[in-house]
């Protein structure tokens, strides 16, 4: 049984999101990227290695996860990547002071249904500040009863499903890793819905 320190592990969703970033690496140089719930920061580290200007974040209430973000940066020769404590659903000075963002990353942030609305509240705030930005997210299907569709409507967000086969992530092994294995993982891109509902 895992404790609240979810961010101490590399999860299958992180490997899939990292694969998406690698396939789209030519579009990343100069892009401003924020990873939320970064944990060990695999997607953010890949984005930084591909030339993006990355900021990593995890809950300000989980100092061990923030330390893991910093360790991942140091291990990958990225000592200047900023690491922020951002708690989903909380309007903190760090969140309010964030520089403009092009891409928000989140792997397996839709892990616990009690957090879904807090995640989307934070995403909505960031997309309102950066209307052309997108939220690239992967999640593991753990229950057919868990859905964010109603919350997407509530927060005036839209999602596009990204087939894993479109970026070579529909395999049990990616990048010499046995993750994602046989887990059911999905990817979507979330953005602001236009005023006409699209």
TrEMBL record:
The keyword Cytoplasm applies. It catalyses: L-arginyl-[protein] + 2 S-adenosyl-L-methionine = N(omega),N(omega)-dimethyl-L-arginyl-[protein] + 2 S-adenosyl-L-homocysteine + 2 H(+). It is found in: Cytoplasm; Nucleus. InterPro entries: Methyltransf_16, SAM-dependent_MTases_sf. One of its GO terms (molecular function) is protein-arginine omega-N asymmetric methyltransferase activity. Keywords: Chromatin regulator, Cytoplasm, Developmental protein, Methyltransferase, Nucleus, S-adenosyl-L-methionine, Transferase. This is Histone-arginine methyltransferase METTL23. It comes from Pampusana beccarii.
